[in-house]
Amino acid sequence: MKANIVTILKYHDYEIVKYLDHDSYRSCFLIKSLKYDMNFVCKVSRTTDLPQEYLASFYGEAEILSKLNHPNIVRIYDYFIEQDISFIILEYCSNGSLLDLVKTQKRITQEKINKYTLQIVDALSFMHSKGIAHCDIKLSNILIDQYDRAKLCDFGLSHYITNDSNKINDNKIRGTLNYMAPEVIIGKEFCPFKSDVWSFGVTFPFISRDPFTILRDIKNGYIKIFPRYGPLARIADQCLNLDPLERPTMAQIKFKIYQLCGDSLEIKPRSTSRILTSVARQQIVVHHPRITRLSASAVY
Hints:
Structural class: alpha+beta
Largest sheet: 5 strands, antiparallel
CATH architecture of the largest domain: Orthogonal Bundle
Oligomer: single chain
Distance between the termini: 27 Å
Number of domains: 2
CATH superfamily of the largest domain: Transferase(Phosphotransferase) domain 1
CATH topology of the largest domain: Transferase(Phosphotransferase), domain 1
CATH class of the largest domain: Mainly Alpha
Number of strands: 9
């Protein structure tokens, strides 16, 4: 399969720089665009090996990312299928994830936490306004680019909500248990926007505890927030309300952060290169005919 991947990528003016990681159904590579002389991430899956549900989610991620143009959401630059192999070309964030940062740094400054928090709140507020819930917010799904900007990634479990109730009923647990809202874990009908709020509350401020303890506390509707995180801890407490209806919206959270922390939180993202901006504006997403059919049944 790798020989085919190399050949197909070369045809599209990409070359593999190095292998990054893999799971049961997909592999990730760092690739270089020969046309733009820039690095990107390539997610690769063989469509014939994928369960229908996973295949629909794979297409769904491409569809959703093509609709989201925000400085704190990882961009999609290309998408194609050849020889039953799917390729998604994504923005490369060279500084790893927030999980990597938490593991390698003994202490993260309050200023940096504030900056990343606001950037992700802004991204989530934007997504929710477009009717899209992420459904898998966690430290490893927040990347840091070369300009030290936080970027939300991995939209394979995202939901595009079109019904008036804003609720979904799904008995299958999808996502990461330590970050899941109680109503999701116990299989109740839930609002994915409110479950995103819970996951955000677990993620910010950074909570580093035994995962089984966190899971038990989530079921009981209680998570201890470390007091040293100040105003963000108070906001996180509100996000971790056992009653979803009592949790704030992402727009309200964004307002509260400005209200509590002041103008010092306002971050103006540094502009990317002209080439990157030009490519982003072109929205180079080549849709395969199967996308429309499968994305309709996707578990976003």
